[in-house]
Amino acid sequence: MARSRPRVWLVAACAAVLLWASVAQLVAVGRLLLQFGPAGDADPSPPPSVLPPPRIYKSNGYLKISCNGGLNQMRSEICDMVAVARLLNLTMVVPELDKRSFWADQSNFGDIFDVRHFIDSLRDEVHIIKQLPERLGPSDSDIIEMPPVSWPDEKYYLHQILPLFSKYSAIHFNKTDARLANNGISTELQLLRCRVNFHALKFTPQIEGLGNKLVHKLRAKGSFVALHLRYEMDMLAFSGCNHGLSLEEAEELKKMRYAYPWWRDKEIDSQAKRSQGLCPLTPEETSLVLKALGFQKDSLIYIAAGEIYGGDRRLEPLRSAFPKLVRKEMLLDSEVLRQFQNHSSQMAALDFIVSTASDVFIPTFDGNMAKLVEGHRRFLGFRRSVVLDRRKLVELLDLYTNKTISWDNFASSVQEAHKSRVAQPSCRRKLENRPKEEDYFYANPHECLVNSSLCS
After folding, report:
1. What's the confidence (pLDDT) of residue 32?
2. CA count, 13 A, side-chain hemisphere, 151
3. How far apart are CA 299 and CA 408, in angstroms?
4. Record keywords: Signal included (predicted)?
5. What angle do CA 44, 45, 49 make, to 5 degrees?
6. Cα–Cα dist 60/166, whole Å
7. Which of 382, 425, 424, 455 minimizes the C-alpha distance to 25?
8. Are 353 and 212 in contact (CB under 8 A)?
9. φ and ψ of 145, to 5 deg
10. Distance between alpha carbon 86 and the CA centroid of its chain, in Å?
11. Could you give phi then psi for residue 214, rounded to 5 degrees?
């Protein structure tokens, strides 16, 4: 009996640890649900208007960040960097947005997001200021400029970055894309990433108002599909996908790819990429897929995208199949939209609002907007999002266009392939040392959803 006591004690201790971990996670998730309402609600409760009390902590220094990429990539970067600032007990400066990328958008953070709401809503986690103190100028030796490594965990920031503040007062991260891992991050920080994404990053009243106006106009016509038709010039040039293009168009895109040095891949095998499902569907391919999935000719479809490469000529097959095809330019007065023109991120914000509110969301490529919208729709009660299996679709499309299979065979095969491709409660797929290939945190932030206990 005496010998069995240590074993009993060990079992009891392990059980206590597991129980403590479970309770800690439930408490953390509960805090998020109290703030935003459960993900199963179609219309989550608005956050309380009373500001949270400020968190009192000794700041280790200042964190300045310069985001890179389009709107939705920058959105995820901001969420990551708030989590990093909280982890390291830093004072964060309102983020700088990318003004040097292909889109040449000169929007500032305050042109897209509500700055005061961003600062106030996170005051119980991180102290955020609008700019660095004047004593820390651009050329100050007290500031170090650097990019963090890609996909790091908390240990990297604690062991590699935090010690730098013993020498410098501020760190300027000049690149912030994919600078925090999808998995292996504490539940507390994962929940903070969600809090920033779903609450703190609120669009300006101007953008919010116009986006809601678009939704109301569409709702007045009935249910609608938001189609993220990622067939813009930059996407095709960057990916090297030229299926269905003329030789002249393919050459134009190739020249563009060589003109931008930060697009590393120059010579790309378009056919190989397409067969691997790594190319966006063309408008013609999209029309066939939508018909095969059962969408009727009178379906109202909103194109959530920038300017389609090839314009109306390229859109003709899709418009012919679905005459009720609309864009924001068709629903809003040109004078109203004029203030947003030449500001691609502000235009993308309007598409984001419509896409999260649509009855069905379908992206033709799994880029940053597709993933961020999918994650938002999961949080808003798992609204229907169809994640296309492009690799399978390319195979079926080629068989159909080559007349190897009939329309009925094609349609039934497409439907069969997408039975389980509708976003639903699930755990992220983790791949050891392959972060680019595993499920993206922001597409399925399961720690912040009602199914979180299933994924612990």
Report:
1. 46
2. 13
3. 20
4. yes
5. 140
6. 8
7. 455
8. yes
9. -105, 130
10. 21
11. -60, -45
Q: How far is Cα 62 from Cα 276, in angstroms, rounded to an integer?
A: 44
* Residue whose pair of structure tokens reads 């409660």 in the numeric block: 425
Helix, strand, or coil here: 61?
coil
Q: What are the DSSP calls for 95-120, one per residue? A: PBPP-SSTT-----HHHHB-HHHHHH
The secondary element (H helix, E strand) that includes residue 172 is: strand 170-173
CA distance 445 to 247: 42
Residues 6+ apart with CB under 8 A from 58: 89
Residue 257 has, within 13 A of its CA and on its CB side, a CA count of: 19
Name the β-bridge partners of 386. Answer: 422
Alpha helices in 227-327 (DSSP H): 233-239, 247-259, 270-275, 283-292, 311-321
Q: CA–CA separation, 441 vs 426, rounded Å?
A: 12
pLDDT of residue 101: 73
Give the separation between CA 332 and CA 346, rounded to whole angstroms.
15
How far is the C-alpha of 114 from the C-alpha of 87, rounded, in Å?
24
What are the residues facing 172 on neighbouring strands? 64, 145
Which residues share a beta bridge with 145?
172
Return left, alpha or beta for 222; rule: phi > 0 is left, psi -120 to 50 is alpha, else beta: left
> Is there a contact between 289 and 225 (Cβ–Cβ < 8 Å)?
no
CA distance to 28, 31, 126, 184, 417, per residue, from 25 (Å): 5, 10, 21, 14, 36
- Helix, strand, coil % over all residues of the chain, rounded to 5: 50, 10, 45
Q: Which residues of the chain have pLDDT under 70?
A: 1-49, 102-104, 138-139, 264, 451-453, 456
Reading the block at residue 224, the tokens are 């609608």
Contacts of 284 (CB under 8 A, 6+ apart): 244, 317, 318
**pTM over the 0.90 mark:** no
Q: Look at residue 325 and give its three-state secondary structure.
A: strand
With tokens 């809503």, the residue in question is 121
Torsion from C-alpha of 414, 419, 425, 431, nearest 10 degrees: -60
Burial 387-419 (b: 16+ CB within 10 A, else e): bbbbebbbebbeebeeeebeeeebbebbeebbe
With beta carbons less than 8 A apart as the criterion, state whether 350 and 340 touch.
yes
Name the phi and psi angles at 224, rounded to 5: -145, 155
Q: Please identify which residue in the block is written with the tokens 């009178």.
A: 298
- What is the Cα–Cα distance from 115 to 94, expressed in whole angstroms? 8
- CA distance linking residue 136 with residue 17, whole number of Å: 46
CA 121 to chain centre: 21
